[in-house]
Design goal:
The chain is built from ten helices and twelve strands. It is an alpha+beta fold. The strands form three sheets. Strands 2-1-5-4-3 form a five-stranded antiparallel beta sheet, sandwiched between helices. A five-stranded mixed beta sheet has the order 7-9-10-12-11. About 25% of the residues are buried.
Length: about 450
């Protein structure tokens, strides 16, 4: 709208200046001719010349003396009266030889004799000079500029309509563009949600820019990636769990079928088969028990019952329970405790942590190896280190040691089949996290492994 107003003012100014310049030139030419004739020409000649000039200009002419009194009026109405126009006073005072201005008021008369109220008129005044250059009179012309004003108003209306139409088009285009900028990312997000609802958990949405919608799309992509990883983890977990459950069940089935179809076997043979079945049932029970613990952890239903305990006693009991297994493999277990490490914790669950880590070390340490169990206090943490002289873990396997069903050495896992579920270290990590602690591992192939558990103490 500002551009429309400026354009209208500019066009209107051009039209008015053009009309003013033309009228000022005509009045100036008339006053110049009167300067040569006013002393010599007869009044009738001047009278006739002014009437002809007024007719040509399409307005009304006055001849005013130095006192602003009308000497001559082409309408013969204001002779002897003062002509109260500022433009006449400007010329009489000598400020300028010519001046003009616009007025919105009733014309006393027009060239055609009609009376029109409220029209715009222009007053164009020019000095009449004598031979010495002194102003002796003023010629003033009152000319209607209503046609020019009407033209300006019409242009204003037309230009205003054009600008309004252009503004409407711009607003419409802006709305369409803005709508597209908003709806495109929304549609992309909606499509991504639909694909995810149909099972495509890895779907990604691309929204360029750095605005709110781009941030929302980035959050969606992050969520999608996490859901995808979780789905893959769930699928892998189900597959591994099925395998771990299927293996002992298949073994039990084979043993039972052997008992059913073996005829004439002695009691010792059946007893041996029953012992094998009992071992597989224990293994199956261990897998189910560990799966239940992890399921509770995943659903945030695994809780701990805190009480004041000495972590030292928990470590000692775990070592005592596992000594027969270590003695069976002739493994030396060295216990080094420098602080009782009093803390608020769940002793039963910490017992499971110690048991899983130490039994894992015994399982993967060769015969006549060594295991060092150290407990010390460092600052406000109890630090438990379990080191073994086993074959160690490859660097590529270290990030996955605490994953469910992950065994770093597949060949070694096959040799120890039936001695673990592949869930022990995952359970360790869950329990340690519940106690606001951390568990880490460092290892090199051929140099053994060290598991470190840090727990807050009182």
């Amino acid at each position: 709208m500002l551009a429309a107003t400026l354009t209208i003012n500019m066009v209107g100014g051009v039209l008015l200046r053009k009309a003013a310049n033309q009228n000022v030139q005509q009045v100036t030419d008339l006053s110049a001719s009167l300067s040569n004739e006013i002393t010599d020409a007869s009044f009738e000649k001047i009278h006739g010349g002014l009437i002809d000039a007024a007719r040509q200009m399409g307005g009304r002419l006055f001849l005013v003396d130095r006192d602003a009194k009308v000497i001559f009026d082409t309408f013969d109405e204001r002779c002897g009266t003062l002509l109260p126009y500022g433009e006449v006073q400007t010329v009489l005072s000598g400020e300028s030889d010519a001046d003009y201005g616009y007025h919105a008021h009733r014309l006393d008369g027009a060239a055609d004799g009609a009376q029109r109220d409220g029209e715009w008129e222009g007053c164009f005044a020019s000095a009449v000079l004598d031979g010495s250059g002194r102003t002796v009179a003023v010629v003033a012309a009152l000319i209607s500029i209503q046609d020019t004003i009407d033209t300006v108003y019409q242009l204003r209306n037309n230009i205003g309509l054009v600008f309004l139409a252009a503004l409407a088009v711009v607003l419409l285009l802006s709305a369409l563009i803005l709508s597209g900028l908003i709806t495109r990312p929304i549609n992309a997000l909606s499509a991504g949600i639909d694909r995810m609802a149909q099972g495509d958990y890895g779907t990604m949405v691309h929204v360029p820019g750095h605005g709110e919608m781009a941030n929302l799309a980035a959050a969606f992509n992050e969520m999608s990636e996490k859901v995808h990883r979780l789905d893959e983890s769930r699928s892998q977990f189900v597959s591994n769990a099925s395998h771990e459950l299927k293996t002992p069940l298949a073994t039990i089935k084979i043993l039972v079928e052997t008992m059913l179809y073996q005829e004439g076997a002695d009691e010792a043979f059946y007893k041996e088969l029953l012992q094998d079945i009992d071992s597989e049932i224990d293994r199956l029970s261990a897998v189910v028990s560990d799966l239940l613990i992890l399921a509770k952890a995943d659903s945030r239903k695994l809780t701990i019952r805190r009480e004041r305990i000495d972590f030292e006693s928990v470590v000692r009991k775990s070592v005592d329970r596992l000594m027969p297994l270590a003695d069976k493999k002739e493994i030396a277990v060295n216990l080094d405790i420098t602080d009782p490490c009093v803390m608020e914790a769940d002793s039963a669950k910490l017992m499971q942590v110690c048991y899983n880590i130490i039994s894992n070390a015994i399982k993967y340490t060769p015969r006549e190896g060594r295991i060092d169990v150290k407990l010390r206090r460092t600052g406000r943490d109890a630090v438990l280190e379990v080191s073994d002289t086993g074959v160690g873990i490859a660097e590529a396997d270290l990030p996955h040691v605490f994953d469910r069903f992950y065994r770093a050495d597949r060949s070694r896992a096959r040799e120890e089949e039936g001695t673990g579920t592949g869930l022990g270290l995952s359970i360790v990590r869950q329990i340690v996290r519940l106690h606001a602690g951390t568990v880490t591992v460092r290892s090199k192939p051929g140099e053994g492994s060290t598991f470190t558990v840090q727990l807050p103490v009182l």
